[in-house]
Amino acid sequence: MPVFHHGEVEIAYRDEGEGQPILLIHGFGSNIRINWESTGWLQFLLDRGRRIVAMDVRGHGDSAKLYDPEAYRLPVMASDAAGLIDSLGIARVDVMGYSMGARIAASLALARPDLVRTLVFGGMATGLFEGIGGEDEIVAALLADVLDETHGARARGYRNFADKTGSDRKALAACMQAQRELVSPDRLAAVRIPTLVAVGAEDDVAGSADRLADLMPSASAFHIAGRDHMLATGDRTFKERVAAFLDEAG
């Protein structure tokens, strides 16, 4: 993949297709291939005439691995995204983030509303300002020598996912330590960018899509039937609702 240097930090990305561009920002512990390619999102959007810009968030995939939690604060990661879009000469872009990626997307919209045409928050809703909880257990699980030393189903799930993807667990632990950072509901309420909040009906991480949509003046909620936080990612109805939302934006 090509790389973009934001200061001294190397960010890997993909830029494919033509048409209205959409920036894809993956979730915690994931990467472009897992979050967007293997789930069919890349081909789905390319088939609909979209230009895809997808980034491996710092600490993930082929991007630089950093071990200071301060390097993973939301404004810093949003700045990576803005820098990438600016470097590609794109004036305005649709932005879709999943889970942690939605948190980064929200921070990007707050910092650089001039860049963002529409927003899709997948797998994240009131968790933006209420938090997801269990961060200490997840960090401990990521740093444990073996999986058997971890405690709690959610923490074990994160550790198991990191092992399966061959991730740098130390970098992920530093990133998770910064994930306590919340986005003020007052600031979200001031965002007037058209927004779709899409959350699995069985998701116990994201929080309430309806409450977030009610808070944001130009937002709507979509419930992904029968899906939890992990299985919602590549859901067909999720894809179709996003396609309709983007079409509505023109």
Which features characterize this protein?
250 residues; alpha/beta; Rossmann fold; 2 domains; eight-stranded mixed beta sheet; globular
CATH hierarchy class name of the largest domain: Alpha Beta
Residue runs with pLDDT of under 50 for 5 or more positions: none
Given helix and strand content, the structural type is alpha/beta
The average pLDDT is 96
The CATH H-level homologous superfamily of the largest domain: Alpha/Beta hydrolase fold, catalytic domain
Instruction: Report the β-strand fraction as a percent range.
Output: 15-25%
Intertermini distance: 30 Å
The total count of strands amounts to 8
Helical residue percent?
Answer: 40-55%
What is the subunit arrangement here? single chain
Q: Work out the radius of gyration.
A: 17 Å
Topology (elements, then pairings):
Elements: E1 3-6, E2 9-16, E3 21-25, H1 32-37, H2 41-47, E4 51-55, H3 74-87, E5 93-98, H4 100-111, E6 116-122, H5 127-130, H6 135-143, H7 153-165, H8 169-177, H9 185-189, E7 195-200, H10 209-215, E8 219-224, H11 236-249
Parallel strand pairs: 3-4, 3-5, 5-6, 6-7, 7-8
Antiparallel strand pairs: 1-2, 2-4
Helix pairs in contact: 3-4, 6-7, 6-8
